Each structure stands twice: as C-alpha cells, then as structure tokens.
Amino acid sequence: xxxxxxxxxxxxxxxxxxxxxxxxxxxxxxxxxxxxxxxxxxxxxxxxxxxxxxxxxxxxxxxxxxxxxxxxxxx
Amino acid sequence: xxxxxxxxxxxxxxxxxxxxxxxxxxxxxxxxxxxxxxxxxxxxxxxxxxxxxxxxxxxxxxxxxxxxxxxxxxxxxxxxxxxxxxxxxxxxxxxxxxxxxxxxxxxxxxxxxxxxxxxxxxxxxxxxxxxxxxxxxxxxxxxxxxxxxxxxxxxxxxxxxxxxxxxxxxxxxxxxxxxxxxxxxxxxxxxxxxxxxxxxxxxxxxxxxxxxxxxxxxxxxxxxxxxxxxxxxxxxxxxxxxxxxxxxxxxxxxxxxxxxxxxxxxxxxxxxxxxxxxxxxxxxxxxxxxxxxxxxxxxxxxxxxxxxxxxxxxxxxxxxxxxxxxxxxxxxxxxxxxxxxxxxxxxxxxxxxxxxxxxxxxxxxxxxxxxxxxxxxxxxxxxxxxxxxxxxxxxxxxxxxxxxxxxxxxxxxxxxxxxxxxxxxxxxxxxxxxxxxxxxxxxxxxxxxxxxxxxxxxxxxxxxxxxxxxxxxxxxxxxxxxxxxxxxxxxxxxxxxxx
Lengths: 75, 499
What we know:
The structure holds two protein chains of two kinds.
Chain A: E1 3-7, E2 13-16, E3 19-23, E4 27-29, E5 33-39, E6 46-47, E7 50-55, E8 67-71, E9 73-74
Parallel strand pairs in A: 1-8
Antiparallel strand pairs in A: 1-4, 2-3, 2-5, 5-7, 6-9
Chain B: H1 3-22, E1 29-30, E2 55-61, H2 65-81, E3 95-101, H3 102-114, H4 118-127, H5 131-140, H6 142-147, H7 155-166, H8 173-179, E4 184-191, E5 197-199, H9 202-207, E6 210-211, H10 217-224, E7 234-237, H11 261-268, H12 274-284, E8 294-299, H13 309-316, H14 319-325, E9 331-338, H15 356-398, E10 419-426, H16 433-440, H17 450-466, H18 468-475, H19 481-490
Helix pairs in contact in B: 2-3, 2-4, 2-17, 3-10, 7-10, 11-12, 13-14, 18-19
C-alpha cells in the first residue's frame, strides 16, 4: 500500500474523508484511492482548507516513489 | 349445505386467514433519529476497557454447522485458560472483535452476549442439541405449516424464533450496546442480490435507514446460517434515512446523508482501487429506498465462509487501519478458526462420471472452498506486505532519511513498531493422518454426536496452542530476549487446566 505524509509545522490531527485519522508529519499507510485531506480544527490556521489527492500504488516509475507528500501552509 | 357445516367452514377459513395474517416475520425497524451519534453498535463505541487497543486480538469463526461452532468453542475455552505473560489478563480478555459466519455465529454471538456464562451452559444450550430435528418438528407442526404458507414467513424465520427462545433469550443488539465492552461482534450474512457480504453492525444498518439496536441477535444468526435450499432468506426493509417512526419517509435527514464522504471518494476511484470502489458501491446501492426497498439475506458462507473479508476491509481502510495510523495498536493478532472439511472421495476410480448429487454438491462447494483458501492467503499477503513496509521504513529511519519534525519518535511510519500475527487454525494442520481424516470427514450439520462435539472442542484448543505463530504471539509479551526464547522453546501452556 502507498504511504501518505501530510507536512505541516505542528503536530495536528488529520481529517481523511472527513474522518479523524492519523497525524501530520507521520507516514500513514493507506490503500490506493482518491481522498480529501484536511487538518482538524480549531484553530483553522492552515491553507488550503482541504486538498483532494489521488494516492496510487507504486508503479514502474524510476526512482520508486512510495511516499506521497502533501503540504499545508500555516497561516 | 347445512347451517352448522357452513359455520364450521367459516371458522376454519377465519383461523387460516388469521394465521396467515399473523405470519409476518419480524422486520427491522426504521431509524428513529438519524442524528443520534450515541447508542450505535460499532467498534469505536464498544471500546472499553480503556487502552484495550494495545493488544488487538481478532477472532474469526467459520461456517460449518455444529462442527464449526464446537471448534470455535474449543478455541475460546483455551484462550480463556492462557495468561498473557507479564499481565494479569488472559488472551480471551484481550479479544476485541469476533467476526462470525453461519455455524460459527452461534458461538461468537453467544459469547459476545453472555461472556463467562458461555462456559457454563453453551454446550448444553447448543452444541449437544439436535437443532435440525427440533427445527424439522417445528416445520411439521400444523400451525407452523399454515404460517409457512405465507409469502412473508419462511423456514429461516421459524429457525430464528427457535434460536431466539431457546438460545439467545430474546436479546437484541441493544443488550450488546448496554454491555459496552468488547468483543465487538460482527455477524456476517450474504446479500443475495449483490453476492456481497452483509454485516450486522450499525454502520451497515444506517445504509438501510434502520435501527440495529432493536434487532434480535437470533435473527442475525439465522440470516448468517440460512443455508441455501434447506432454509429461506431473512428479509430486511430499506428505509429512507431520517423518517421517524410513523413518519411518511418524505422528510430528509438533516444531519448526514446515507452516503458518506468516504463513499464518494471510493466511488470516484474505480480505476485506482476496485476493491474500495465495490465496498462503497454495494452499500450506497441502498441510498434510494424506492429502487431497493428490501434486502434478502442468506448464509454468510456464500460471500466469505471464514469471516475474514470484513477484517481485511477493517485492516485496509476502516477502524483497524485508523488505529494503526494513530499508533494505538502494538500487537495485532488475527486468529482464523476454519472448520473446513475435505471429504475423502473416490469417484475418479471409475470411468463413469459421478452422479447428479455428487456434481450438485461439488458445484455448491468448490467455489466456496477455493474462495476461502484465497481469502486467507490474501489476508496473509496483506500482513506480510505490512511487515515488509515496516522493515523498509525502519531501515530508512536508521539511515537518517526520516528527518521528520516528529523524529523524536525515531519512527516516521505510524504504527511502525506493531507486531502482526496471523494464526490460521484448521484440521489440515493436524499431524496425525488418522485424526486429520476423522475431522476432515465430519458432516456439516446442526446435529453431531456428543463424542464428535467433545473431540472438536478438544482439538480446537490443541490446534491453537500448537500453532507456532500463536506461540510467538504469546512469548512476544516477554521483554527479555532470553525469556522470550525460553518461552518459544517450551511452547504455550495453559495456566489453568480448563474444564
């Protein structure tokens, strides 16, 4: 399964498809698929408010990319 | 015709019509308050005692009539007798989920409802009974014969009444919620329309706009064990979400719709992940209650005869995955109790092909057996892949590539230190060929001889303690490597002799 890492300056709980799931700055193993990622608030001090991502199983690309990184800025 | 004869005919007709009218099976109730977040039956709501996730134990009980129920009971009994090193708990105390199919549902549901009482009376209440004969007597009763003429009342409804009265004491899912502690019970049936598995949980019932809590556990077990042809489907109604009891169904739920954000994401990703897509598709099919007003359920074995698919889903995307990604689980052990048999046959010794009965039985069971095998192997592969990922990530961390802001944990993969165990128990694990043959040739029935039941209970416990992966799981509780090795060398011993 692919890995997702949501990068944010603080340790915060994530919302994956609107469900609390894991924390920022950790690699989370998730099955491949489309997800809507956000950070649980308050405070809502992050941008963008949410991101829709497509997490894919590692393919034939060279170099092998197993971790997808998604960045949220602190505002 | 004399007046007295007319009177007599009229009385008979009225009696028959009355019986037909009252011969409606119990129907699931509409969810009165779709906004209620409490009082639901889900893993997250059955979370006591606190910290129970550290050691996360899952049991899956396969189908196979009384054979499966007795084997599962033998495993439960042994889990109760084995203490976890360096704790004051038994393995049974740590069981978080029991996922059950068909015959295994009797044992799993009884234990989830009655706990310790299981070891006092379950053998007499179920294992040693001749349920098949009791059911046949009920069918032969003329009053029930008339009730069975109703299109809304089948043999499984009659079976559910028998189970409810004589085994499950009229308990509903609200009794499980009131208990409030684990194990979380997942009774599995098969949706006859889609061929997909159907689980008796609040989450699944929400897609039907229905209230699980008022539903009798006996009916869930009856659906799970409704073997095709011998028994009939158990039917559930699909309601619009948000319609209160007595409401028209026009008003929509103001809180959340049946379809969740997770479903929407899954449905968008058909090309990326078809398993995730279909899991959502089969549930969201019931979004519109006008198109699919009813669900007809049969034996859970048709979709998955070991109860492992639901655990695979929880591991891939639902509660277990979330707990892993939040570092809540230190050890995950999945114990698969599989009562699969393999009858000795010799029809390949003659040139004449086998008869219709043999072909019929083979047709009904070959796919199920192959699918069961693949289900277990697929799950083992998932676990092996996870272990490999953990090793890769640990190596990467040690090489200094894991420079995350959270590097204090020196483990950037969430749940990266988790230990995983798959303990698959089945008769094929037995070393003694004659013993193996005895168990592999037991019938699938709800009436076994007392001696067969006794041997099944004994072998269930023995298969467990002799499984090398179970030994590693138990011995893994020792922090000291020498103690751990010594434990592995001597094997697992029950701390109490058991009954």
